[in-house]
Design goal:
Chain lengths: 322, 406
């Protein structure tokens, strides 16, 4: 856990200025991307995973809680949104709310159980609960088992924004991503975030200072689950399907991988990590199942040689907060 | 940064020009063979389907007429989301005109939606679900080779007639398994049999023991295997280890391919009844195709009916393009023209494509030979009965396809 401490820079005026500049650059690049001929579908998928990794990073990077079951929030929201749009015929905005709310509710339930333990036990409990949900979704009739929910209609957001236009959809997903990202950024830099970091560094001391640490941990867990669910709901509009892949434990592993490659406990690390992993899956798809082996090798290299992750190493080199 | 921007701009301009050029009828065709390249259906479709597509392109005679035909392949890993991502990218970026093969009904139905949305052509040969030409039919889809209705009627009907009137199902838990169980149950009930129970197993299972013991305990006369590929061979092998057949119950493999029989060996597979639409040793033309095919396969495998279906569907597609004089890239229009022409190819013989997209041709009920009857490698099947084309597939009157209501 030392790497987290190394990444944590004192929050000062300079740090906030650096982060704001980086945020500006990121937003500008993402706004310009669809006009460069890059496949928008790929970028949209990357954005959904980036938000997911950021939500995960909120928990591990700032709360020190390693959740190995974040796929269940992604998948739950995906299934609920997909079902709401396709079977109940709800408009997109209500579908997103339904999916995100389902993930939040699941986050409360699993959070209440999981935060009672720490370290490896916390990770194992989240993994166990995620596996439990996986088998529920494998058997539940509304998910259609191995087929998943297919051909989900994209519809019109607020009744007038046509989501089946790729460019329109891109900017809606981008807006969703930036919204989620700013919520996380605000949470990290709030008094709440400070307490969270205090708990991460030394929980007994935080308790002795009078903080009810369980409340803070639960709140962080639910916030993370909700935003992961929001990412899952957005992903439904991009992929137009919701399938078992999104609730499988390998997805939870990929989230960890994205965050580690990008930089644990950095603001922008998970975004970079998500795009690196998605790009690998995209461009190495020809190797079929070897992609997992390549990912594993990259994970090992990353942990052995640059432990702070891509963004973490850059930030460390320039002594900046990113 | 500036160089990058320029490169981006240039590529956009280039893409726009290309898209403009593609609007006019030209003589370029790109075929995408989307299949399971590495897992349980890789021998049924997989690299063999890519080869079959290449052979169809070479045999079509279009290349001599100045056409440019390219075949690419992709691995959907039996996951609907991966399959639809590949299909979407092929149609969006790689300018693929036709997607062929696509085993695994879950993936097939996902791809069906995308091809319809992008108005391309979908020649499915690998998937079994009869929904492709029934409830979920599309103006861009032609379904060749087989489907669950045909399998259920061929095998289910024949076995009930022979006295197998109580059934227990072992079903693969996805679209195909469910459709096959549904269609077979209908046939069993209609012919006076009864289904006493069933159990669903996950796709790509290696241990069938608990499922087989439940089937054994059901005391049903027939254990229907509503699964495919590696799942079917595994369940047959393990059933023989549990002595299920020796105990008096009979196995009905509802979908069995010649590659599965090859993997099982005649000792385990002998006596199995099942329905297929293509067997390499049927006539001179099929033997000639099979010989050329197996010579070019890495593992010297004989073509399965899925490979044959990829070939035959593409032969008909190329014939249609030739008649139209160019590739209009209007998928629905090309498929409509394909439906208006009778089909005639060396592997399936004469047939037609019905308005719902179903290609019809005769089907055959086979029995696996005893080891003593087999004269050499790949000599596996005995023909039991031929089901004429008009009886093998869903009657149009029973089809719920929306295209028929015009």
């Amino acid at each position: 856990m030392t790497s987290i401490t190394e990444n944590a820079m004192p929050v000062g005026r300079r740090a906030i200025r650096d982060e704001m500049i980086a945020f500006g650059i990121m937003t500008a690049v993402l706004m310009a991307l669809p006009f460069t001929g890059v496949y928008p579908f790929f970028v949209m998928q990357g954005l959904c995973f980036a938000l997911l990794a950021c939500a995960f990073n909120l928990l591990i990077g700032y709360g020190g809680l390693l959740s190995f079951g974040h796929a269940m929030f992604l998948g739950t929201a995906g299934y609920v949104t997909g079902h709401a749009l396709k079977v109940w015929g709800l408009p997109p905005e209500l579908g997103i709310i339904a999916g995100t709310a389902a993930a939040a509710a699941l986050g409360v339930l699993t959070g209440l159980i999981a935060i009672r333990r720490q370290g490896i036990y916390f990770a194992m409990i989240t993994l166990a609960l995620a596996q439990l949900m996986y088998f529920v979704y494998l058997q539940a009739p509304f998910t259609h088992g191995e087929d998943g929910i297919q051909g989900i209609p994209q519809g019109h957001l607020f009744g007038f924004i046509n989501l089946s236009n790729p460019t329109t959809l891109y900017f809606v997903v981008l807006a969703g991503f930036l919204f989620g990202f700013l919520i996380i950024y605000r949470a990290i830099n709030s008094p709440f975030g400070e307490v969270l970091k205090a708990i991460r560094e030394n929980e007994p001391r935080a308790i002795s200072l009078g903080y009810r640490t369980d409340h803070y941990k639960l709140l962080a867990f639910v916030l993370s689950a909700t935003l992961a669910g929001f990412a899952g709901s957005l992903k439904v509009f991009v992929a137009q399907n919701a399938s078992l892949t999104d609730v499988h434990w390998t997805m939870s592993g990929e989230i960890v991988l994205m965050t580690l490659v990008g930089g644990l406990g950095t603001v922008f690390g998970p975004v970079v990590g998500a795009f690196v992993i998605i790009a690998m899956q995209q461009y190495l798809a020809g190797f079929g199942q070897w992609v997992t082996v390549i990912q594993g090798a990259i994970f090992v290299i990353c942990v052995l040689t640059f432990r702070r992750g891509v963004v973490g190493e850059i930030a460390h080199y320039f002594k900046r907060s990113l | 940064m500036r160089a990058k921007l320029m490169a981006g701009l240039l590529s956009t301009v280039a893409a726009l020009t290309l898209a403009g050029a593609a609007m006019a009828d030209d003589k370029v065709v790109k075929i995408g063979a989307l299949s399971d390249q590495s897992s349980l259906y890789a021998d049924v479709g997989g690299p063999g389907s890519t080869l079959a597509a290449q052979m169809a392109a070479e045999d079509s005679g279009l290349i001599a007429k100045g056409w440019k035909i390219e075949v690419i392949s992709g691995d959907h890993q039996n996951k609907p989301d991966i399959g639809s991502n590949i299909a979407r990218q092929w149609l969006d970026i790689d300018k693929v005109d036709v997607i062929v093969d696509v085993p695994n009904s879950g993936v097939a139905l996902a791809v069906n939606n995308i091809v319809k949305e992008k108005n391309a052509v979908y020649l499915n040969s690998g998937a079994a679900s009869s929904d492709l030409t029934n409830a979920q039919c599309s103006p861009n889809t032609v379904h060749w080779t087989y489907d669950t209705y045909m399998l259920a009627h061929g095998t289910g009907g024949a076995l009930v007639k022979a006295g197998g009137d109580t059934w227990y199902f072992l079903t693969a838990d996805y679209a195909f398994g469910a459709a096959l169980e549904r269609d077979t149950t209908a046939v069993i009930n209609a012919s006076g049999g009864r289904v006493v129970g069933g159990v669903k197993h996950p796709l790509n299972t290696s241990d069938f023991s608990s499922f087989l013991l439940q089937a054994q305990a059901s005391k049903a006369k027939i254990i229907g295997l509503a699964n495919a590929g590696g799942d079917t061979t595994n369940s047959i092998k393990q059933a023989s280890e549990f002595g299920i057949v020796a105990g008096g119950q009979k196995l009905a493999a509802l979908l069995l391919f010649i590659s599965d029989v090859h993997a099982l060996g005649l000792n385990v597979a002998q006596g199995l009844n099942f329905t297929e639409t293509f067997y390499w040793d049927t006539n001179d033309q099929t033997r000639a195709f099979a010989k050329r095919f197996s010579e070019r396969m890495k593992n010297k495998q004989m073509p399965t009916m899925v490979h044959a279906g990829v070939y035959a569907a593409l032969v008909h597609y190329f014939k249609t393009l030739d008649q139209m004089g160019g590739n209009s890239r209007d998928g629905a229009k090309i498929v409509e023209k394909m439906k208006s022409m009778p089909t005639d190819d060396p592997l399936f013989g004469k047939g037609e494509i019905q308005p719902n997209g179903r290609a019809i041709h005769p089907a055959y009920l086979f029995e696996v030979k005893k080891p003593s009857e087999s004269k050499g490698p790949w000599d596996y099947y005995k023909l039991v009965a031929t089901i004429p084309a008009d009886q093998a597939f869903t009657p149009l009157a029973d089809s719920k396809c929306a295209l028929l209501k015009k």
